Amino acid sequence: MASRETKISPRPGDVWLARPPYLMLAQIIAVDDRRDPALISYVLHDEDGFVLEQISHATLDRSWWHSFQPMERRYG
Fold first, then answer.
1. What is the per-residue burial (b if ≥16 Cβ within 10 Å, else e) of 30-68?
2. Among 24, 54, 72, 76, which one is least packed by beta carbons within 10 Å?
């Protein structure tokens, strides 16, 4: 069983879903994990796909995993 401390790192091209109560999507543009803490850039979309804001060089820290979760693709 995977540990709860194990976190999936966002990668460019991934789409992450905002945790409730929000209905937003974050499309990952870039991740700079050579820094400490790592930095992330993404485009925030509303539930209809409209661009709300582009975020550049945000800190990829505990608050990221508190606010977003990986979007699981389901087929069929």
1. ebeeeeeebbbbbbbbeeeeeeeeeeeeeebeeebeeeb
2. 76
Distance, in Å, from the CA atom of 2 to the CA atom of 4, rounded to the nearest integer, reads 7
- First and final C-alpha spacing in the chain: 26
Which of 36, 37, 39, 40 has the alpha carbon at shortest distance from 27?
40
pLDDT for residue 44:
96
Quick: pLDDT tens for 6-42: 578 899 999 999 998 889 999 999 999 998 889 999 9
Q: How far apart are CA 54 and CA 5, in angstroms?
A: 28
